[in-house]
Amino acid sequence: MAYIFFYSTAFSLISYSLALFDPLTIGLGAAAVLGAWNSDFLKDQTYCRYKECCNERSIPANVNALKTKLVDLYGQHIVKHQLIPALASHLEKRRDSRKSLVISFHGTPGTGKNMVADMIANSIYAEGLRSRFVHKFMGRAEYPSEEHSASYGYKIHDRVKKALEECPRSLFIFDEVDKMPKGAFEALTSIVDYRSFANGVDFSQAIFIFLSNTAGVEISTHLGNLLLKGILRENTKLGDFEKILEKAAYNLDGGLSKSSLIEAHVIDHFIPFLPLEKSHIYQCLNAEFARYDMEPDQKVLDEIVGNVVTYDPIHGVFAKSGCKKLDKKVAVVAYQRGR
């Protein structure tokens, strides 16, 4: 590996320099060098200046950067209020975490679950999503078969354990959890439970994020009922939804169905992504056009919204696919205008 070259070069220079001194000085110098070696000092000062390492330089854990990024998340005040303190308290250096941080995102498509997971990776790691300490599991693509759920579970367990052996401060993102077979996460429970160390591996510093469309309908129904009672959307809180999410995740089909992760109460936060309304769709559209340095007139915006957005049949105000399909529609308009 590259850092071996650095170490060998450093020791060659040190050995040459020590030859100029008396034996006592040589002994003291050698002890100092060995101490530096054992503390990984040389690695931090050489190899890790040029390559990604499991240290603060490569993992700055910039929660303030995440807070800035979340400005572009529309209609999700609960996510903003809950996520920042959850991550900040887990990443705080003064505290020794007793377990890994486990968060489950729930909501209908296009409400921002994947976008927020990506924002977290890009804020915690200097290399962002390209970091070798960020591990993304694609549910339906990687784990399609119900009959192989047990073997999937062992593969996930082994992959996570090996990642944590390399870097305890790793991030694991599980996408499309609702499309994964029941039982896929059973072997994972032992890792995320209240155990700091097992077989020499530190599990307590990791972050696990589950993304699921499960309970999207339940979130929309409950939010609609709260609005009918006169409660403003902005005044709803996590406590209005968390029990609903936990119950739905446990009882509905998907990777968390009847899961010991829920039975053992190791999922720290069930966070709802509320269904988006028309005003949020316009915000998403304006943000997409801004990426092309375009300011479209209201007619263009209205036409896209009218052609793309359909609403839930019960309340008639929640966009079924959220902002999911807007980027491609905007890309077409930008192309037609030579942007």
UniProtKB/TrEMBL annotation:
GO molecular function annotation: ATP binding; ATP hydrolysis activity
One Gene Ontology CC term in the entry: cytoplasm
Transmembrane segments: none
Any GO BP annotation: cellular response to misfolded protein
UniProt-listed InterPro entries: AAA+_ATPase, ClpA/B, P-loop_NTPase, Torsin
Pfam families on file: Torsin
Domain AAA+ ATPase: 99-242
Superkingdom, taxonomy of origin: Eukaryota
Family: Belongs to the ClpA/ClpB family. Torsin subfamily.
Name under which the protein is recorded: AAA+ ATPase domain-containing protein
Native organism: Glossina austeni
